[in-house]
Design goal:
Layout: E1 8-10, E2 13-14, E3 31-35, E4 38-42, E5 57-60, E6 63-66, E7 68-73, E8 79-85, E9 92-97, E10 101-102, E11 108-109, E12 114-123, E13 126-135, E14 141-150, H1 156-160, E15 169-170, E16 174-175, E17 179-185, E18 191-199, E19 204-205, E20 209-216, E21 221-230, H2 240-259, E22 264-267, H3 270-286, E23 287-290, E24 293-296, H4 308-317, H5 323-335, E25 355-356, H6 360-364, E26 371-372, H7 378-393, H8 396-417, E27 460-461, H9 462-481, H10 485-506, E28 507-508, E29 513-514, E30 517-518, H11 531-534, H12 546-554, H13 586-598, H14 602-617, H15 650-653, H16 655-664, E31 666-669, E32 674-678, E33 688-696, E34 699-708, E35 711-719, E36 724-728
Parallel strand pairs: 32-36
Antiparallel strand pairs: 1-2, 3-4, 4-5, 5-6, 7-14, 8-9, 9-12, 10-11, 12-13, 13-21, 14-20, 15-17, 16-17, 17-18, 18-21, 19-20, 22-33, 23-24, 25-26, 27-30, 28-29, 31-32, 33-34, 34-35
Helix pairs in contact: 4-5, 4-7, 5-7, 5-8, 7-8, 7-9, 8-9, 9-10, 13-14, 13-16, 14-16
């Protein structure tokens, strides 16, 4: 992922597009909402704080359309009672009350007499809010409410910490009795507009605030509504209060409809049920409907856009749960596959997308990410996912449609990916402002030698070779289904050639693992890493080496108690607080868990499952973040938070579902219309699990699994007529 948290352009020179360390997400408990291409970051009271290093705001297409929002009651900031994002991720609810107030003539109002409830959601480029004020005093009270707002139209990269030599022009505000329109003319010749509408009309409305005064008898309440729309296209005839109710119904219905595709999961552990429901709701909140189908945006706040690698891995991790996600990802990335060479975008024909941005800085080329292809693994992962999708669904029709894209992706591997013709795929940026490291660990210091010296490119990552191996095998399988026998035979031959060369060049006998990478001189980076765990997803490693690789990953220097570290303790650049050099990433562990299960290490996969569930237990909303620090687990303490971790994050949300698949040995056979469990295990925190509506070829089955000591009994609860359940021990 393009975190830019610790990237640099040259040794000692800071990267131009960082996530500023002062923009900490961990120091304050923030709430996030996301719908479509809009997302919001709010504090616990529902306000948007504005200031240096604060990234709160309402964002649309990588631009901050609302940079400040605050509500005062009786002239002071109200007291927070509670706030939460509801489990379905649609509504933010905040409860507030008044502080002790001294009136102008000595009148006094003690605290906790006025109750304020804020209810907020996003729908179709609009942020809706309802404010309810109720008087719980035995005397009449006057509620004085002031809502202040600000729109700076900062590009997302500015909000992240980048500076710009020039900006566009703010236009004069347009104000009526109940509406304010704030606009900005960007240097990209685009006008961006924030329109606020209030109901009932405020007593006073300016370009910065709306003022209300309500006389409330004892026990009475009053409602006010306002909405913030990004780039309004047409006037609205209905009032905000009616639009609030209609929008809330539509938002809930849309999320319920999309998530209904997924298999449902219920267990004997209620806390785990909370965590898995949050996972599923986060996944479907982050899905954005494209013309090509649903596409998971990477995460909030920094990555709420289309990423290639993130979406491909998210689709892999959720393939058993909802294959429609993978279908949408494959179709979208096929449509946006690079057609020509473009060094500015690190693009070459056949290459698969890394990232899309829509903000002013991207449009102007101030950042290179408008359509950016600087990812070494997205292309083989695309072909790899296509093979997995076919195996899961039997959907030959989609394979026929995207077959030219698969061929072009494989051609890119042969022509551009293998830069020096040695059979390995390497990366090296062509744009000096692009990413230095182009694997999933894209920090500037994430690829290094045993003495800590940074590797110089072109760099061949170990896991990328495994992805290429799997991609060739997938292309062979798809090719045979489409009658391309000669093509398939050639891909199988190239895959076997790669397997032999990989084991000869990457294996480090004294470490019992595969080298992190080969540098530009073909010297191995003799460093233990979680990257090597991704190799287990495939059969590229010779069978005699798998046990040693697994043992190293599960050793206490690597396994923190929460999960496997990106870099184990003892390596030169190990730092549990580093973005990629000692932290723990949930998705990384999910992929390793699937690899462990692939090679029959179900108990080890269950240990990862336990660690990830325990981490979710200690995390706000039971939500696994993008990453957390890699400190060794201490009893009665949760994992140490990483300061700028995104939450929610799509591939982190997909982690627990993927670990369910790994421990159950769950797979699907569309030809036989069968669900298969191979040596299923349930971790010790789950006595029972029910999987509802597992789907194969339109048929569905519901099964209940019960742990009996070290074994699992499986009962079919309900099924359509033709579907089968097969169990292998």
């Amino acid at each position: 992922m393009d975190s830019q948290a610790e990237t640099q352009t040259h040794a000692g020179e800071p990267d131009g597009f960082p996530v500023a360390a002062k923009s900490l997400l961990s120091e304050r408990r923030l709430h996030t909402l996301k719908q479509g291409d809009m997302f919001g970051v709010f504090d616990q009271t529902g306000d948007i704080l504005y200031g240096d290093g604060i990234a709160d705001g309402l964002y649309f297409h990588d631009t901050r359309y609302l940079s400040g929002l605050s509500m005062s009651l009786q002239g002071t900031r109200p007291i927070l009672l509670s706030s939460t994002v509801r489990e379905n991720n649609v509504m933010l609810s905040v409860d507030l009350t008044n502080t002790d107030i001294e009136g102008p003539e000595g009148q006094r109002m003690i605290h906790d007499l006025l109750h304020v409830r804020r209810s907020r959601f996003l729908w179709n480029r609009v942020c809706y809010e309802r404010v309810e004020i109720r008087n719980f005093d035995v005397e009449p009270r006057t509620a004085v409410l002031d809502i202040r707002f600000l729109a700076d139209f900062a590009d997302l990269f500015e909000a992240r910490g980048s500076t710009r030599p020039r900006r566009g022009t703010m236009r004069a505000p347009e104000i009526s009795d109940a509406e304010v329109k704030l606009s900005y003319d960007g240097l990209d010749a685009r006008r961006r507009t924030t329109q606020l509408r209030f109901w009932p009309p405020p007593a006073e409305l300016t370009a910065q605030h709306a003022a209300y005064r309500f006389d409330l008898p004892p026990g009475q309440r009053v409602l006010l509504h306002y909405e913030v729309e990004c780039d309004p296209t047409e006037p609205h005839e209905t009032q905000p209060n009616r639009r609030f109710l209609r929008g809330a119904v539509e938002a809930r219905r849309a999320l319920r409809l999309s998530s209904s595709r997924a298999a449902a999961i219920a267990t004997s552990n209620e806390i785990f049920n909370e965590a898995i429901r949050r996972c599923v709701c986060d996944i479907y909140m982050l899905l954005t409907d494209k013309k090509t189908g649903p596409y998971p945006y990477a995460g909030v706040p920094w990555f709420s856009t289309a990423f290639g690698r993130d979406a491909l891995i998210t689709a892999m991790l959720t393939l058993w749960l909802d294959p429609e996600i993978a279908r949408g990802v494959l179709a979208y990335l096929a449509r946006h596959q690079a057609q020509t060479e473009d060094p500015t975008a690190d693009a070459e024909p056949g290459k698969i997308l890394h990232e899309v941005r829509h903000g002013e800085m991207a449009e102007l080329g101030e950042v290179p990410f408008r359509h950016y292809y600087g990812s070494i693994d997205s292309t083989p992962l695309f072909v790899m996912l296509a093979g997995q999708y076919l195996e899961r669904t039997g959907d030959v029709a989609l394979m026929t449609t995207i077959w030219p894209n698969i061929e072009r992706a494989v051609e890119w591997i042969d022509r551009y990916g293998d830069r020096d013709g040695d059979g390995f795929v390497e990366y090296g940026r062509r744009n000096k402002d692009g990413l230095i490291n182009q694997g999933w660990k894209d920090s500037y210091d994430s690829i290094f030698h045993a003495d800590g010296t940074l590797a110089e490119g072109p760099i061949a990552l170990c896991e990328v070779q495994a992805y290429v191996y799997a991609a060739r095998r997938a292309a062979a399988t798809i090719g045979r289904r489409l009658g391309r026998t000669a093509y398939a035979d050639r891909q199988d031959h190239l895959a076997e050639t790669l397997r032999v060369a990989f084991n000869a060049r990457f294996w480090i006998e004294e470490l019992g693992t595969f080298a992190l990478a080969l540098d530009g001189q073909k010297k191995p980076c003799r460093v233990r890493s979680s990257n090597a765990g991704h190799i287990l997803l495939t059969d590229i490693a010779t069978p005699d080496r798998v046990p040693r690789l697994v043992a190293g990953l599960m050793h206490r220097s690597s396994f923190s108690g929460w999960g496997i570290r990106t870099i184990p303790e003892g390596e030169a650049r190990y730092n549990p607080m580093a973005y990629h050099n000692g932290s723990v990433w949930p998705h990384d562990n999910a992929l390793i868990g699937l690899g462990l299960a692939h090679h029959g290490y179900r108990d080890e996969a269950a240990r990862l499952f336990r660690g990830m569930f325990d981490a979710a237990f200690h995390t706000d909303l039971r939500r696994l973040p993008e990453l957390f620090c890699g400190f060794t687990r201490n009893r009665a303490e949760g994992p140490v938070r990483y300061p700028v971790a995104c939450s929610p994050q799509a591939w982190a949300a997909a982690t627990l579902p993927a670990l369910i698949q790994s421990t159950l040995g769950l797979s699907f056979d569309p030809a036989e219309v069968a669900v298969h469990f191979q040596r299923p295990r349930l971790p010790d925190f789950l006595d029972q699990m029910t999987l509802y509506n597992l789907e194969v070829g339109g048929d569905k089955v519901t099964v209940r699994l019960v742990r009996v000591e070290d074994e699992v009994a499986i009962n079919v609860v309900q099924r359509t007529q033709s579907i089968q359940v097969q169990i292998t021990n």
